[in-house]
Amino acid sequence: MAAAAALRAPAWPARALRGLAGRPPGAGPPPPGPDEAEGRTFYDILEVSRKARPEEVKEAYRRLAKKYHPDRNADDPEAENRFKEVQEAHATLSDQWKKALYDQDLQFSKFGSAAVTDVDKEQWTEHWDKETEEEREARRERYKRYAAGERNDLPPDPFPLRLTPVIFLGIVAGVFYVCIRAPDWFDLQSEATFCDPAYDDKTVPLVRAFHDPVLNRWERLPEGAAPPSPAELYAYYRKRRPDLMEALDLRLLPKLSLTILQVPRTDTVKPSPRPQAA
Length: 278
Description:
Blueprint: H1 2-7, H2 14-17, H3 34-37, H4 42-46, H5 54-67, H6 77-93, H7 96-107, H8 121-125, H9 133-147, H10 164-187, E1 206-212, E2 217-220, H11 230-240, H12 242-246, E3 260-264, E4 268-269
Helix pairs in contact: 5-6
């Protein structure tokens, strides 16, 4: 029960936690130092506020270190103690993790302000009675790490927002480069022998054909045969398909000759036997 009572003790200041590992169970916290007995905090020692920026802490440390340096105060026996206090305060407040731990200790210690110490410590420690031996031992080890300045429960450093444009542009440039280079990587389009199947399919033979503008199709031509003239073609459709010719605008149809090309065989139809127009 003595060990459990010791674990239910309120949080101690950082300097008191440093002596926790070497003290026997149930011994309680180490005796307070002269500054703790007077209620002074590291902020009071450096003469800065709790909202002081790192630059202000550093400037206060330099000023007080020069003021209390033993070499400048050979006749003052208290100067050396003050100098050590200033060094200890700066070592804690200049480190982000140690400062966070120290502020947490202040919040639940007698040194905290009235706004942050109005907490019923029996309420936030009552769950310690329900701890198992494994949980209690884990808490002891956690306190030892805290006393040594090792914190693995603090959030990571915030994301560097200044690098966001660089990261975004880098990703966009990488995707663009991959899209541009992918045809060469996978299809070897830069090779002189490259053949795109979508436009130059060598597996389908080419045949000679003319374009029928009335039916909008390619019609194969026999070897050596010539296509009909536009007038002959239109006369044939006026006789056989008058309804089709009425739906067409003759002003948009070719007047002089029909188009003849080498077209894939699969895109053509067989030649239609049609008599010559009179």
